[in-house]
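Subgroup meeting minutes
Present: P.N., E.W., G.H.
Scribe: E.W.

1. P.N. recapped why we're keeping a running log of single-chain structure predictions: easier to compare across weeks, and new members can see raw inputs and outputs side by side.
2. G.H. added today's entry (411 aa).
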Amino acid sequence: MHTNGTEAAHTRESRGRNVRVGDAAPPMGEAGPVESGPLEAPPGGVRHLYVHLPFCAHRCGYCDFVTAVGRDDQHGPYVDALLAELELERHRLAPALETVFVGGGTPTFTEPRALERLLAALPAAEEVTVEANPETVTPELAALLLRAGVNRVSLGAQSFQPRLLAILERRADGDTVRRAFWMLRAAGFTNLSLDLIYGIPGQTLDELERDLDDALALAPEHVSAYELEAKPGTRFTHAHGDELERQSEALEGYFERVVARLTGAGYRWYETANFCRTGDGRDLRARHNLGYWRARDYLGLGTGAVSTVAGVRWRNGPSLGRYLAALRRGALPPRELEPLDGPTRAAERVLLGLRLDEPLATAGLGDVLDAEALARLEALGLARSGDDRREIWLTPRGRFLGGGVTVELLA
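Output recorded in log:
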C-alpha cells in the first residue's frame, strides 16, 4: 500500500500530500449509494484510467485505503470483475489513452497470472504505471511488467531506516528497496519513481537526511515525498497520535529540507510533494497525476475507485463482495453519485492547479477567485499574477505554505 494520493487539498497537510487519480478525490457530497446507469461521455472521451487492485499481504497501521488482506482465492475473480467493468465503461474512454495507473492495495501482490491477464487486457496508453512494494519485486515480476507494456513503476520505499520502517509496519528494509530498484533497472525500466514518507513518529532530522541520501544514491527518475498523515480511526492514530501532534511544528522545516535537498540534486519541484529529474530531454513528471491536478476527466475501475467524468463524480462502493456480485450478474457496482456544479469544479481547479509549478489560467474562475485576497497575497510575496491576471501561481514561499494560501484565494 502506497501513500500516493489521499486528499485533494487540506490546509497544513496539502503541502506534502499527493493525489492518486481514481483512488481518492475531493470529498463527495451527500448522495447515497445508487446503481448508476449510463452517463454521458465527454467529447473525445476520457484519456486517464485508474485501476484499483486492493489486495495486500497485510494492512499497514496508517492505511485507510480500500484494501483486502490475502484473499488469494479472489484475485482471479476480481480481475474478471475489473474486466467486466471495463467493458461496461469502455464507451467513456478515448480511442487513445494518455495514462493508465494501476494502484492499490499492493498491485504486485496480486497473483501473477491474474495480474498479467489484467495488464494484457487494459487499453494501451502513453504512460502505464504500476505501484509495487519492494518485497514483492522479483526478476520474474519485473519481466512480467515490462512484457505487459508497463513503462513506469512506482516503488513504495517510504523509508530506508529500520526503526522507522518498523513504526510504519512496513515489511521491506532498506536493502530490500535497493534490490527491488536494481531488479527493475536490470529488467529495462528507465522510468522509476520512489515514494518517501517524512514526519514519522519520532523521526529525527538526521534520519530524514539519511533517507534522502539513500534515495538520491539510487538516482530515480521521480521522487514523491509525503508528510505522514494518520487518518482518524486508524490504529496508527491511536498508537502515535500524541507524538504526531508534538512534532507537527517541526514538519515545516522537514518539508523545506526535502525540497532543498532534492532541488539541489537537480530535481524539479513540479508539484507540492513531487519531484522529477531533468536534463535528459524527457518530461518525467507523473503524467497520470498531472491529469488530476489539471482537473482532467478520469475513469476509475475497481472497488472503492473514484471517477470524474463530464461534470459528475462517482465512487464505487468499498465492499469487495458487492463489487464482485454486481459484475457477475452484468451490472455496474453500487456507487455514490455526485453532480458537480460550475463553482465546485472551478474551486477544485484552483485547489489542485496551484499545487503545480506552472501558471494556472484564470479563465472561467472569476466567480471563485477573491481579487482582494490575490492582491494581498501578492503584496506578501506569496502569489503572482500575469498580465491582466489571466494567470496566477504561487511563489516558492507560497508553495511552502500550501493549501493555507490557496484557500485564501477562494471567494
